[in-house]
Amino acid sequence: MQPSEFRFSYPLRVRWSEADLQGIVFNGHYLNYADVGVTEYYRELNAANPGRDDLSGNEFFAVKTLLEYRAPAMFDDLLDIRLRVSRLGNSSMAFSVGIFRHETLLVEGEIVYVRADQQTRRPLPIPAGFKEAIRQFEQVAPSEA
């Protein structure tokens, strides 16, 4: 996994409260970093599609997270949180996550979301317009997403 594999990037500096006494980031914080990245991904997706209000991801619920740790982040490191939508299904989508320090991969993973009704949590199809906005944002041909 290389930083160049991702269109989206968000910088995040490791805060003191996220590290132990040796300055190493506690592993539970990496999922929070990925979540911040997803939020900022949607913010940038919306900025790339002015006038649309259906690209917030508010109807998506996380159903699976997987993180693989390669190297530790340290207090005050400037991290590069990188994400891309790696799969768009009928009602689900997957983000590939890479957390880097410079060019060094620290953590890689995947977060799978399902679009669902807010009340019943039953899956709903992802609208075609949402999928197209993702494809354009990712600069991926429809047959590849």
TrEMBL record:
Pfam families: 4HBT. Gene3D superfamilies: Hotdog Thioesterase. It comes from the Bacteria. Keywords: Hydrolase. Residues 22-106 form the Thioesterase domain. InterPro entries: 4-hydroxybenzoyl-CoA_TE, HotDog_dom_sf, Thioestr_dom, YbgC/YbaW. NCBIfam families: YbgC/FadM family acyl-CoA thioesterase (TIGR00051). Belongs to the 4-hydroxybenzoyl-CoA thioesterase family. PANTHER family: 4-HYDROXYBENZOYL-COA THIOESTERASE FAMILY MEMBER, NOVEL THIOESTERASE SUPERFAMILY DOMAIN AND SAPOSIN A-TYPE DOMAIN CONTAINING PROTEIN (0610012H03RIK). This is Thioesterase family protein. It comes from Halopseudomonas sabulinigri.
